[in-house]
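Handout, section 4.2: multi-component inputs.
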Amino acid sequence: MDMEKSALGIFIAALVLFMMGTFATIILPFYDDEMMATNKNSEARAYADGSAEASGREIYIREGCNTCHTQVVRPVKADLAMNIGPVTVPADYQNDSPHLWGSNRTGPDLMWVGARTSAEWNLEHLKDPQKVVDGSIMPSYDYLSETDLNDLVAYLMSLKPAQ
Amino acid sequence: MLSNAEHSAAKNFWYTAIGWLLISMLAGLVVAFKQVWPEFMGGSEYLTYGRVRPIHTNGVLLAWLSMVNVGCMFYIVPKLLRTKLWSEKLGNFTCVLWNLGITAGVVILATGYSTGVEYAELPLWLDILVAVLAILVAVNVFMTIKNRKEQQLYVSIWYFVGSLIWLPGVWIVGNVPAPLVGGAIQANMNWFYGHNVLGLWFTTVGIGTMYYLLPKLTGKPIYSHKLSLIGFWTIGTFYVWNGPHHLVNSPIPFWLQKAGIIPSILLIIPVWTVLANVIGTMKGQWHQVRDNVNLKFLMTAMIFYLMACLQGPFQALMSVSAVIKYTHWVPGHAHMAPFGAFSFIGFIMIYFAVPRISGKEIYSKVAQNWHYYLSVVGFLVFAFSMWIAGVMQGFAWMDGLPFMETVNMTRPFVAVRAVGGTLMIVAQFFFAWNIFMTLKAGRHYEVDKSELVSA
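Output:
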């Protein structure tokens, strides 16, 4: 077949090549036990419908907190030196839908933020970040309602290693 | 309203894309300012950082760049195949629907109805609309190819056919609703989408357009047809595997990380075929770059394309990723291909095609030069400040410095980034003004010799 004259040939070959890579990097992970495992951390993050934590997570997504904060601890020098908690594994995230890994640490990682901060601190900090952390570049969330703020704090405080 | 005039669909896609370029880049500038002054435009939930940022990314990618791409395909495919676009009416209808969809998207993101998945923030019903739009474009292009008068398929057509098959696939994988997947599986699908929408849509349509423009601008046929085909097949083979390289050192299995890292390195092959072809074609023609702003844009775009594709595999290495991932380096890198390479190709295409469609000469060469120099200088200021800040930040984190100290040390660079960003956007106002004035008051345009050279 003369490919330079056959659009159908290009069409089929391009589709097959795409399917190969998709099969390897998207479909195969579904059959990987490590990828599909659950653990106590993910069970602790399976928030009941209507709970403060579940609503707090919605607010976290709505306000785009994940544009500046990651929720991943990697086994690399930076993350170990920053002392941000245990290295995370796929099982920790089994009940995260959507995932909130993030791609930029304009602010610190929040995977285990509940283990190193208090509810009072978080509430103050959300309302007026610069008052609590001098020089912070986080925006103020004082426009959120009292309920929204409390829910968001409940969510943040739930982010800690399961006992 | 739905015109059937020749090239009207391409034209409408481009003109509205320019509007979105200004809007979405302004959103980017707001975000850059907010990193300097967190209270800038603050106090309103609709303008908070976390909501404006997705407006910037979705606007630039789904509105500006994607619409430029569609315009390029609607213009170039009929030209190369000596066949009218299958349906200008359908094309114009797609354009109207596209603009309505993006407008809805901006409102939805500003009001906080985000899925939370980076680059795939739009809700399901808009995802479905975008998929329908992509299919409408594909139908129009494929039907044009089917009815073609010219049998030979020039390499640009290959790239367009490939892109139109890959885009719906990439889009579907990236937008599977969270309740169906979630967790590490979804993070992996997220980056499959985040990476491949660049590589199998923006890159492949951009390179296809470049292969159309290069002979037109230089008056020389491309150096090697075979090399361009090798580039096409290698990008089609290796690119789709690259998603997991965004998750190097992250909580996904090691084999999956490697499945992303190895093809990243092999991607140097398609990049090099493109560069070799450009350099080969330019042999003996470099003097033309001096007086031709479009060629200046093209050569600069190719340099940025090469740089982006050398940085990419480098960053995919586990040791390098361990230092620069999550730092300011990332936005420095992430802007290079979409802005420095493929937006530039979009600019050239519009500068090239508008006189041929409207019969009016580009209004101001001076403004075109300003557009070029401010874009390039602005981007370099932006990128280098981010790269330097990122490396500083990465090593400071490894030293275990308190987080606020690392924020303080990068503060000047973040401010310089906003200056670079300002230059980048001022440049686009020269562009928009120039195109507007061309249509309003441009002198009569005569077809030049480049029309006679076959692609």
